[in-house]
Amino acid sequence: MRSLLRLALWASLVLARPGVALEPGDRVDDLELPALGGGKAHLLSGGTVAVLVFARVGQDHSEVALKDFAARAAGRPDLRWVAVLSGDTPLAEARALVAATGWRMPVLLDAGDVLYGRLAVKLHPTVFVVDREGRLAAVEPFREINYGDRLMARIQFTLGEIGRAELAEAEDPKAAETHSDEGLARSRVRFAQKLLEAGMLEQALAEVQKSLAIAPTGPGYVLQGKILARQGKCGDASRAFDVALRLEPKNGEIAVEKDRCAAEKGRAP
Amino acid sequence: MCRPIHAAAMFLALVLAAAPQPGSAALRTELKRTPTLRGPALKPLPPSEAKHAMAPFQAGQCGVCHVKNDPLKPGPIKHASINEECFSCHDDVKELMGHRYKHVSAKDSCTDCHNPHNSKEPALLHTDMVTLCTSCHVGIGAQVASSRIKHAAIHKDKKCSNCHNPHAANVEKLLIGLPFNLCVNCHSKDGMTSADGKPMPNYAKLLSANAVWHDPVKAKDCSACHRTHGGENYRLLIAAYPESFYAPFDKKNYALCFGCHNEKVVSEPVTTTLTAFRDGSRNLHYVHVARERGRTCRACHEVHAAKQAKRIRDNVPYGPSGWLLNIGFTRTATGGTCTKTCHDTKSYDNKSLLTSAPSGAAPVQ
Fold first, then answer.
1. Domain segments of chain A as ranges
2. Residue A122: which of B265, B281, B351 has the nearest Cβ?
3. How confident is the model at residue B365 (pLDDT cuts 50, 70, 90)?
4. For residues A165, A169, A175 and A181, what is the CA-based torsion angle, rounded to 10 degrees?
5. SS3 of B270-332
6. Is B254:B241 a contact under the CB 8 Å cutoff?
7. Which residues, numbered 197 to 236 in chain B, qualify as contacts with chain A under a Cβ-Cβ cut-off of 8 Å?
């Protein structure tokens, strides 16, 4: 009897592949598991991308993530969203989690934590994205920041809705700097433009020079050239237009302004 | 010569209207209730008090924004809304507002935060930035004010906007970038110390020298473990984590780790699925941690990054003087070995039958 028990234990240790994480592209077994609402349900749904959310009761991260995903799932009914809880989760606590998060999709209970073992799930929450062919596409462990955005980008990438560049942008979004010299310089140029429109040439020139001191921009030099041209200083204007042209070689307006200034100078008595 | 006269005239014209103090609770309430009454609250400060001014205001050019160029009666603004008026020059901010996450106040009205004429504060804010932000973000204000462990970044340099873009951003919580990009930007200097005076690593160096990163670090998600506005736990951790090498096992002491990791990895004496640190089915995490004089996570694992898989340490500071105790761990195909330091050299094997049931020192439940 003891030898039989030892053999059974050996078999469970050697054959069960415990703790071996699946790699993207590996097939995910479509297990049939008890559902919280009663009966049994399959993990996957053939031909549909599945989003498997492994969550835990009594844990803030799981609750926050489920609440967020529940809202996002409402906008993506084309996906199979499933929450998976450990088989030993008290049913009352599982129901409380569902109620607190507004999760309306299936909740499956992993009896004996078989699925947890097969997928080597050690963190909560962890999301497995399974493609239409039943192969693992991505694993997304918990993130405090931008978790939902990253998950949705990963799902969209799996569906071919976005490319690698958009996925990379979602995973590490471009910085949104609070202040840039270029932005400040642009504002000064805009103000100088308004002064020019009001015929206040001296003030406009002073303002555009402040702008160029902050950041030498093409629009800054163009405006400086225009103001100087209005003041009849065509040589200085021409030099400003030349600098602008180096900064913005494709800006056709610069050559026009330069020519206009030269023509007006030619007409001058 | 003209500028002070213009500024003084504008001040006199606008100061006549009694107005709630910018940034005050009364102002906030008023803004919400009657947005059209924003004007009086936006009066310019006396020139002697103002340190910063909007360029057109300073130049006496009321007509840039208002329908008249008369400082005594400038009339309404030219555009249909305050923001349209501001964006007619500040088009960089208008572009910024195209980002995914937008600050409600910035969307609503620039003047919720900025005085369009002049101010004592940079960026023409109504008040000091921390005071201004926390006048709405009351919970954060309480956290900043009352937390045991402070984060110095909140009160220095650009204050809140060291990390947040108060207009809009591509990252939740209006963060300028993902937390890692912001945190390591500052925490990449030698000689930094924490609030309690203890040395802090240069994280740029630490991470470049150690290739195996903790998952939240890989995800640039420092906020998964750290509460950046201030907190009650050592190193601004969001939840409890033992500071020392030994600690009695109580899952509350490990709330930080168990926020993501399954507590069963420590609490179950026997497993074949929860961990690979087991001899047969004997859970060696349980053996080490779940006892009165339990070894804490830090005894074997580096938190941020290490050279070995599972971030097993090469050595660990031990005792009051922080002497470095070698761990001497070597991984094998189905287990591992620890050389003699904490205990005699011991090996374990996931597929072993010899120690498949708990034995030896009885762990404390």
1. 18-171, 180-267
2. B265
3. very low
4. 30
5. ECCCCCCCEECCEEHHHHHHCCCCEECHHHCECCCEECCHHHECCEEEECCCCEEEECCEEEE
6. yes
7. 215-216, 219-221, 223-224
Superfamily the domain A180-267 falls into: Tetratricopeptide repeat domain (1.25.40.10)
Contacts of B259 in chain A (CB under 8 A): 59-61
Residue B231 and residue B238 in contact, taking contact as beta carbons nearer than 8 Å: yes
Q: How many CA atoms lie within 13 Å of B278's alpha carbon, on the beta-carbon side?
A: 25
- Per the CB < 8 A criterion, the answer to whether B27 and B21 are in contact is yes
**Residue A109: which of A65, A56, A51 has the closest Cα?**
A56
**Using an 8 Å Cβ cutoff, are A232 and A260 in contact?**
no
For residue A125, say if its preceding peptide bond is cis, omega within 30 degrees of 0: yes
Work out the number of other CB atoms within 10 angstroms of the CB of residue B315: 12
pLDDT 10s digit of each residue in chain A, 269 long? 556 555 544 444 444 343 457 889 999 999 999 999 999 999 999 899 999 999 999 999 999 999 999 999 999 999 999 999 999 999 999 999 999 999 999 999 999 888 988 898 889 999 999 999 999 999 999 999 999 999 999 999 999 999 999 999 999 999 998 888 999 999 999 999 999 998 999 999 999 999 999 999 999 999 999 999 999 999 999 999 999 999 999 999 898 988 888 887 666 54
Residue B49 contacts A, CB cutoff 8 Å: no
Using alpha carbons, select from B302, B107, B129 the residue that is nearest to residue B213. Answer: B302
Q: How many residues does chain B have?
A: 365
Inter-chain contact B64–A195, Cβ cutoff 8 Å?
A: yes
Tell me if domain A18-171 and domain A180-267 are identical in fold.
Answer: no
Distance CA A185, CA A188 (A): 5
Q: Which residue of A has its CA nearest to B158?
A: A178
| Share of chain B residues as helix, strand and coil, in percent rounded to the nearest 5 | 40, 15, 45
Are A40 and A33 in contact, with CB atoms under 8 Å apart? yes
Q: What is the separation of C-alpha B128 from the centre of its chain, rounded to a whole number of angstroms?
A: 20
Window 164-193 of B: residues touching A by CB (8 A cutoff) are 164-173, 175-179, 181
Query: Is some CB atom of chain A closer than 8 A to the CB atom of B334?
Result: no
What ipTM, to 2 d.p.? Answer: 0.83
CATH topology of domain A18-171: Glutaredoxin (3.40.30)
Q: Does A72 touch chain B (CB under 8 A)?
A: no
Q: Residue type at B276?
A: A
- The answer to whether residue A174 neighbours chain B at the CB level (below 8 Å) is yes
Q: Which residue of B has its CA nearest to A9?
A: B353
Residues of B within 8 A of A142 (CB-CB) are: 224, 260
User: Cβ contact (<8 Å) for B259 and A116?
Assistant: no
